[in-house]
Write a structure and sequence with these properties.
Blueprint (H helix, E strand, L loop, with lengths): L15 H20 L6 H8 L3 H8 L2 H14 L10 H17 L3 H14 L1 H18 L1 H9 L8 H19 L5 H17 L5
Helix pairs in contact: 1-2, 1-6, 2-3, 4-7, 5-9, 5-10, 6-7, 8-9, 9-10
């Protein structure tokens, strides 16, 4: 059966509560991308979502609480990792995914707003950390599989490999302002794969 019966007051998958959450999180993402974390409030999100203000205030309480739920939803719906059969191919696919996200007209500003929110609120920071743990856990098996094939040393730390690939892309995105383009992503993937093979991430 597709629908599960829950306790009174809980949402069924696809029910009204789920639709309200989807509409509010979409509206919040649009508002954050447009105005940043300092430019929105719950009343505006409710207006954009065509949802009653009391519903939004009762469920999320604050903008940072809404940010935390948005990050939870993003982790729940994140794309599965690639499985190209090679470490180089898998890391190149991840670099391309990060590049596409950070340079997207909506997703790029949204991530900047989410990171800004995390810098000023512990709840948002914890949610952001959980989001990236989910992403690292999702992609770590490409390194574990590479180690099983003998492509990298057996004691290679998969999480460190994923972090090493991501770091230069996020540095350009958030700090230096240097161009983010396919060549940048390709170099980051190739450098990380070479470092992994050399034993740089052995623990």
């Amino acid at each position: 059966m597709n629908q599960a019966t829950g306790a009174p007051g809980t949402a069924r998958p696809g029910g009204r509560t789920a639709r309200v959450r989807e509409a509010v999180l979409r509206a919040a993402g649009d508002a954050l991308a447009d105005k940043g974390i300092g430019g929105i409030d719950l009343a505006e999100v409710a207006r954009r979502a065509d949802v009653g203000k009391t519903t939004v205030y009762r469920r999320w309480g604050t903008v940072h609480g809404l940010v935390a739920d948005m990050l939870a939803e993003m982790a729940e719906s994140s794309q599965p990792r690639a499985d190209t059969g090679t470490l180089d191919g898998d890391l190149a696919a991840l670099a391309d995914l990060i590049l596409d996200t950070l340079t997207d007209a909506r997703q790029g500003p949204l991530f900047k707003a989410l990171i800004a929110a995390a810098a000023s609120d512990p709840e948002a920071a914890a949610a952001l950390h959980r989001f990236y743990r989910v992403r690292i856990d999702e992609w770590s098996p490409c390194v574990t599989t590479a180690a099983a094939r003998g492509d990298v040393p057996a004691a290679t730390d998969p999480a460190e490999v994923i972090r090493a690939l991501s770091a230069p892309l996020y540095y350009r995105f958030l700090v230096s302002g240097d161009p983010l383009d396919p060549d940048t992503a390709k170099r980051a993937a190739a450098a990380t794969a070479a470092a992994a093979r050399s034993g740089a991430y052995v623990v």
